[in-house]
Amino acid sequence: MKEKKKLYQTVTEQISGLFVPIINYLTAASLIKCIVILLAQFHVLSEGSGVYQIFFAVSDGFFYFLPFFLAITASKQWKTDLFLSLFIPVAMLYPDILAALEHKQTLSFFGLTIQPAIYHSSVIPVLLAVGLLYFVEKPCDRFIPEAIRGFLKPMVCALIVLPVTFLLFGPIGSWIGNFLTELFNLLYNRNPIVAGAFMGFFIQPMVAIGAQWSVVPVSMGNIMTQGYDILLPLLGGAVYGQCGACLAMALIYRKEQKEQRQIAYQAALSAALGVTEPSLYGVTLRAPRAMLSACAAGAVGGAIAGAAGVHCTSFAFPSFLTCVAYVSPGFVFFLVSMAIALPIGFCLTYLQKNAIRKGIPMPLTEDATVTK
Known about the structure:
The chain is mostly helical. The protein has helices at about 1-40, 50-65, 65-80, 80-90, 95-100, 125-145, 145-190, 190-210, 215-225, 235-250, 260-270, 275-280, 290-310, 330-350, 355-360; strands spanning about 105-110, 110-115. It is built from 15 helices and two strands. A two-stranded antiparallel ribbon has the order 1-2. α3 crosses α6 (about 125-145) and α6 (about 125-145) packs antiparallel against α7.
């Protein structure tokens, strides 16, 4: 048991070190994005106006270029060269590479096929790449003479890390997302309720690793060919399950954990407006019981939406802000699926408050978030 606790605390510290430094900026970007979308919904702003486009760019751009921010925090966490770490997202998000891989064009690397992948807003590829960089840098520092290390070390590291990133690390999120999407289609044809519970449970873990983007082409394709989509409505409960779990965590944190309690309240507000990244990276991924509770709430919400056969007629990630896109014969049940998930996520999390508190290191200070 002692070993398990040590392992869990190590994982918790790693997650904190990667995401806590940027969580306030993540929350700020989320709230700006939600406000701009809300103003557009009520026709206060036009989507074609400069005000809308500039503020949407700064908010959505943070998520789009998230690999850059993670490269910086991972470099600090794992003591790699900062500029070498930034080599990785620079290559991943280079426009020509991005366009080719996200549009499923075939690229070859010395006879090996680079699989299509979505790199914007991704998490896993850049973290794995910086982790590999740590192990590549060590022998470079040891064996390359100091006189030529300044330029030769970046060359050697790039020649090793970047091919592995594109050939192996990059497609991981897409492989997971595509597998779960195919499994969903199989389940939906057999039982929409089970399929709804399945997607409601797994969508937030998919968001955590950036695999949720595999859902986008499927949903957009459904809307273009059929005029509606049945996948997106199943995901609303998962959003508000995260909101409920974050509210519970805000009450579970002790008085000494003021900073984390504040993050939990901010994350709950962001999730209530439809953006769950702050809740995932700032709160629930650090407390597995809360994460499982939120996913269970999402499963209940997804099952309700699946049973009602809710459709959406335009592409919009589910929230109360975008619910106009989900007006269909089962619209009331779509609202119910989100409304019921919040108290379920809250109650399931709060009922485990003693176990959750035991798993959170005390005191939670800024120094505790960095592995020494």
